[in-house]
């Protein structure tokens, strides 16, 4: 009582308090206490990022947090405020364009999320209020509401099962959308509420539930329900995961259930497992940012050097203010520091083209348009669902070409998840059965013994153990009533190896027929039905690595059967035949089978009394329940007798024998979550080290968040490898969101994975082409695009920088403003865009058939320091050639045969012409795949440049202040020397590149059969034995 | 982003060459067997061109004379001293005498060269009003702000032509005299001062403002000449087609040079007896020394130059072509060796 009131007193601090109290139906439990509503969050799911009001500021803020956008904003502001050589429009317009397009795109995506949220939040649910069934919107559910759920509906929030339409208060649930396990799981109501299966009766229930605060682990729940029936003292019952119905799970095979909401909205386990879709950045984008910083540094250096030199140069008075170029009064009066600062900014603006806004536009366009090729690909088209691939985000196309680790959802995606009973050993005697010969026919002859027989009793005991010690359920079909001995029994269980074991027992004549009223029914070899009362199930857990059942035979004997990993069982058995079994188990393990040891123990009635009490006590505990239970279990499972061992083959596993490690979720939680102490970190690193050594690692029975944790763990490895997750279920969503690239399979388990993924394909097999062909090509394309952009802009700006040394560091632009603006937008944009969309440096078929090619670009190979330096030096070389070539050309009286003289704009135009041609032809040299589009844009761009220049210089433009370019281009072309110089300079600039290409081709011809190691999971090659 | 894909996804994707990335494509491989002949051909062509350019450039004669008058090196130093520190410098004239032992092959062009003069300085380069220069009356009265401090005169009148470029118009003048026979009379060599500016500049870009009552002077009424000018712009020349904004010297000057050391065309010598060039004999150039260059550490030079198809004397192009051509051939040989060696290896591999 005291504790409850204390809880209520500090309701606002619920988060810190370990438990919460929920009043069923929001009825106060006793009249004396005034009911005070605790504040829990409502049942609204919010995955959207913006609202109508905060969209603009929040979105702008987020966009300008990007280093590039911020940089362009600064440049723009400088251009607006300071007297600069170029107009603010040149950088303002592209920036505005980029920002607007991105904002529209993000706004649209958020609108979609709003719509999806609304769909969930506004869905209809039925709540029992005042003994009536009230229809409500899902978001209106409060903690404590009694909710009615009907068959095939999903639970709107986390519920404690109170009653179901079945008499035993059970219901079947599939959690496919949570953890991907599509089998039905059975959930129970507490004994005392089973009967309350109408709206009226459920309303009379006065109970309070105390449970822990929400936590993301799907398989953990501890709580206690206190039921106040009339005047009696409260009855307390323990609540565990088997009583909890999770939001997102679906009710199956049960007409309807009543449950009370304990966790709602963002506090449900599903929501806690859902990770916000964060903006994924590709490795290429990170490289771009790195390059950007290098170029920013270059830019600042250039500006600083120019400013410094300017003031050094100006220290001579006649340089500062010669008689022919005097300053205005205002200029003279400006503070020198201020002037230096504005000069610095001016230089920055002059050189700012080195970091082109247009690159971001082009990259965005390339990604957007390029992604169409994925959705267009008819190889990804699946007739069955009449759909092809879907691209949800185009930001990661190139990341598909960079994947180091593939994480795949096991069930239903990669494997069929089937296990088969292979053999067993009873008291050290090996039994290896062949299915057809058994099936209850040769039962009187005893089991099939191919080697030598164990004692008959032991044999039967072993098989009974297999039949009893499990959590398998029989799927109840409507037609088949309970336990008719139909030949077709469908076993369902959360663990496929249990099914394999039960089936294995069936092979030897012991058939499990299901549970009825707490009794397990087994048909023995003589076709007799044996009934065992199930007293306790000591569930499997990761620490013990075994499970036990305590049953009471018809004769009244109490038996404990235990099965578990050899290391978990051997120390707890007393007999001396361990050695024989051990040999057997070890051999099986070497063969790659999953082995389990089976043990049993008889419990005396007195002992059972004690055990029973201890168990119930532990189960009721609210605090540290697990530890207490563990301790009790530990006490019980001692001094057992070893009967034998089993070997089960995981089909999926043996098909891919290169797999190295299998680990399951419960074990993982130990590694990942156990605590912050050093031993946990130690486990983690050991686990990682093992993982790194394996070709593949199989993790089973994982909660969604664990999948994500594994991904995160690998992601954070040294060298931060690129991860890809592929899955088809809602349980894969967190891992899909966590990994660098998330692929959804449009499978049968709903569309959540596909919706949250970056790409979705109809089948797992499509991953091959998606990575090997599309990913590779996109990577090569965009890497080249990025390098090329930085290259062409360094080429572009370097002459401008060099020119400052010859114009008194006066920020005189070398090129006309129109050229400055159009260079990136018109003259050189389309060829690289076409290249980045169409290039296939290697044929698609070759790429798909040879995974080794994929390795060549791994580790962001094309954007590493080496290639970057190569491109930068190439650009520097070319820029120098352009400028000094023209400079030496101008060391003459005249370039024309009529002796007339050219001015500075002709100088710039010559440099610019060489630049445009060189840069475009350089791309032409790089192009390996000349479609008509490439021809069109490359030659078209050059033609357009020539045409534009004529046009631009051919007219006196009324809106221009200065007619700098008037007839400059035409006049330039009237000189033979200029033509010859342009041709020569283009040739010199391209010469190293041509040389390199030719050399490469010679080398490629000779360098064959490179012995590259295959990337993991891409090698489907069989090895005979992965373990010997 | 999603709409397109979903719309697509509902149907089977189009099976076109474009959507399936199977467009017919030319996939050139710059293999050695193509590149090698190319290298040799290009190399030979470049060497050929280089030789042509080199000899053309060598054939061009230049005769230059620095008449700045530094430290008494020439008789112009008197003028230089006289002008020192005075603005405007007093009128002064000096001369440069030289003799030609043989015919200076024509056509001969007379250039002046200035050094350390930054016509490409940004502040200087923007200091002009192209609208005013195109004869727009409104611009004539209201020069753009960029012209400051040469926008308005001290009296507040608009300056025409405004700006630093116009104000610093080169105002030395030259006349060439030829003494055919030793001791004989000096005859003035006719200098053709027309056709030295770009045709488009002279005929389109630069226009005088519309005449007022048939008078250019009236058209410029209410404006002030640039402070450094001795005469207003409409008196630059008595020739009505060469005065005002369309004065050829002025137009040439207004095309700002690319580098701080630049040459500008002063006159062509192509009339009368001198159409074939300057015959041998003694010559004298009379220089009106007005333009102060020592104030900014500059020099002024006079250059007689003949012009060929490739323009003025410039050995750079020819040498560059020769170097690149030889480099081509050299690499061609190196590649050939590499290629042959690799091919041998290839054959071994294939066996």
TrEMBL record, chain A:
Catalytic residues in the record: 409
Binding annotation for Mg(2+): 409, 411, 728, 732
SUPFAM superfamilies reported in the protein's UniProt record: Calcium ATPase, transduction domain A, Calcium ATPase, transmembrane domain M, HAD-like, Metal cation-transporting ATPase, ATP-binding domain N
Catalytic function, reaction form: ATP + H2O + phospholipidSide 1 = ADP + phosphate + phospholipidSide 2
A Gene Ontology molecular function term of the record: magnesium ion binding
Domain annotation P-type ATPase A: ranges: 121-185
Membrane topology: Multi-pass membrane protein
Transmembrane parts of this sequence: 290-313, 344-363, 818-838, 868-890, 902-924, 936-959, 979-999
Heme found in the keyword field: no
Domain of life: Eukaryota
EC number in record: 7.6.2.1
Transport listed as a keyword: yes
Chain positions recorded as ATP binding sites: 409-411, 498, 540, 563, 594, 701, 707, 731-732
GO biological process terms on file: phospholipid transport
Major localization class: membrane
Key words of the record: ATP-binding, Lipid transport, Magnesium, Membrane, Metal-binding, Nucleotide-binding, Translocase, Transmembrane, Transmembrane helix, Transport
Cofactor: Mg(2+)
CDD domains per UniProt: P-type_ATPase_APLT_Dnf-like (cd02073)
Start and end residues of each P-type ATPase N-terminal domain: 37-91
PROSITE patterns in alphabetical order: ATPASE_E1_E2
The P-type ATPase C-terminal domain, residue ranges: 754-1002
GO cellular component, one term: endomembrane system
Annotated localization: Endomembrane system; Membrane
Family (UniProt): Belongs to the cation transport ATPase (P-type) (TC 3.A.3) family. Type IV subfamily.
Protein name as it appears in the record: Phospholipid-transporting ATPase
Organism of provenance: Macaca mulatta
From TrEMBL, chain B:
Protein name as catalogued: Cell cycle control protein
Chief subcellular location: membrane
UniProt-recorded Gene Ontology molecular function terms: aminophospholipid flippase activity
InterPro entries: CDC50/LEM3_fam
GO BP terms in the entry: phospholipid translocation; positive regulation of protein exit from endoplasmic reticulum
Keyword entries, A-Z: Membrane, Transmembrane, Transmembrane helix
Residues that span the membrane, as ranges: 34-55, 316-340
Cellular component GO terms held in the UniProt record: endoplasmic reticulum; endoplasmic reticulum membrane; Golgi apparatus; phospholipid-translocating ATPase complex; plasma membrane
Subcellular localization: Membrane
Top-level taxonomy: Eukaryota, Metazoa, Chordata, Craniata, Vertebrata
Family listed: Belongs to the CDC50/LEM3 family.
